[in-house]
Specification:
10-stranded mixed beta sheet; globular; about 270 residues; Alpha-Beta Plaits; homodimer; 2 domains; alpha+beta; 5 helices
């Protein structure tokens, strides 16, 4: 059966997360239902990152095997048509899951296991007033944060470490040892009101980015020093972690593979 | 009575527009209701720009006279408390109007008549797939647009012109002659999928920015040449305008005054 890779954007707000669950609609389920409506057959849609409830994606990648071959743009448009029809009742406005691009891939391509790098962004709205335009899209932190100090402290996390401190208790990874390729913290957005935390690694532990963001917030407030963050990492103890940042600030923005599956099918016009 | 300037952000989606109307809730009404709950007295809230239904603002400015003096941060926090309480039923999530900053101003300060410059941004999401994360925040245009050609053509609009072509029939301005200070069109956002049109002028006609954006879209598609845009301007005829762009892509981002009323009360932490 021909295999296709899908580049997917979603608003995590109305979903129980990426992964199919009994307690509500997941992004995976929405995509699988759309595939079934389009092709008439059930199929498993496998994603690169299993994002939690409320977490967004602008560049999730998934793969699916279809009963017959599809021109990539027709597959994208067909899935979007069914997603829109299915989800218009769920969504406040528009369509909370869209397929940005589809592409035929080799049968050994696996969205999750072939990935060599994942990139996330964590967005903090750092101002006294709550968000009117970015509700459900950012973590609102009232206390003034020093992004420069957060950036410097965060560099201690780069490299290969035991990230037990920044790992959810329910994490299913075999090992808490991961290699963080890069982390940056910088002000951005309207009048510098936002703080963007960019992270990239081959793979992440469950809640790793939100655990790091929550701990970096303490550094930005001056409650923790850079040394405190380093000590938390070295403690290898979940109890040493700062309060985990909420899901609505987190975005899966990119997944990289040895060969870009969408290179021939650019998502941008 | 002491006069206060308010810096206001709003999601235009749930409102009938800035201005008070019989047919639904306006941003002005929401602010006036919040002022009444806070101070116990009715007051007129006057805005710098009368945005239409669905149009957003990240930097609207308004003024209001209050029965007594308020510390600026308490006024801001008090209005936000009441806005949140009042609007939580209207909004899908969060609070669609927030006061970013409040500041005491001279009694001759007028949000609308003292303004010397207004800046708007019009956002186009230019890709095949509809928006999942930016629904109600952008105009989705599927056809590939050439932002460079749009930018060049738009320069013909800069300066003092009769903008009758780009003016709504119901516009109440005395004269169709306005001076456009600057306009730029550039790609931005995730993978360059967005096109931002920035415009600034002392004041604008009703629907002027959306009329310009709709006409520039035709230029970006190649349906109009730069010469066609110039001819449309010179025609001074509403019928020569391209289809008016929808409200959800438009943002009032800044209003300038001879002296910045919020200079002593920076909205950013």
């Amino acid at each position: 059966m021909p295999r296709y890779a899908l580049l997917v954007e979603y608003d995590g707000t109305p979903f129980v997360g990426w992964q199919r669950q009994a307690n509500g609609l997941s992004v995976q389920q929405a995509l699988e239902d759309a595939v079934q409506r389009l092709t008439g057959q059930q199929a498993l849609v496998q994603g690169a990152g299993r994002t939690d409830a409320g977490v967004h994606a602008s560049g999730q990648v998934a793969h699916v095997d279809l009963p017959r071959e599809w021109p990539a743009h027709k597959l994208r448009a067909g899935l979007n048509f069914h997603l829109k029809t299915m989800l218009s009742r769920q969504a406040h406005n528009g369509q909370p899951v869209v397929v940005l691009a589809a592409a035929a891939v080799a049968e050994d391509f696996h969205a999750r296991f072939s990935a060599i790098r994942r990139a996330y962004v964590y967005r903090i709205l750092n101002r006294p007033a709550p968000p009117a335009l970015q509700a459900s899209r950012v973590w609102h932190v009232l206390q003034p944060l020093d992004a420069g100090i957060m950036h410097e402290a965060a560099q201690a996390l780069v490299g290969r470490h035991d990230f037990t401190t920044f790992r959810a208790s329910q994490c299913q990874a075999d090992s808490p040892v991961k290699t963080l390729d890069a982390i940056s913290v910088r002000r951005a957005g309207n009048a510098g009101e936002e703080i963007y935390i960019h992270v990239s690694a081959r793979s992440f532990l469950h809640n790793q980015v939100r655990s790091i963001a929550g701990s970096l917030k303490l550094v930005g407030q001056g409650k923790w020093t850079a040394g405190d963050l380093r000590a938390a990492l070295e403690a290898c103890d979940r109890a040493a972690c700062g309060p985990v940042a909420p899901p609505q600030g987190l975005y899966l923005v990119a997944v990289e593979y040895p060969v870009d599956p969408f290179a021939a099918e650019p998502p941008v016009v």
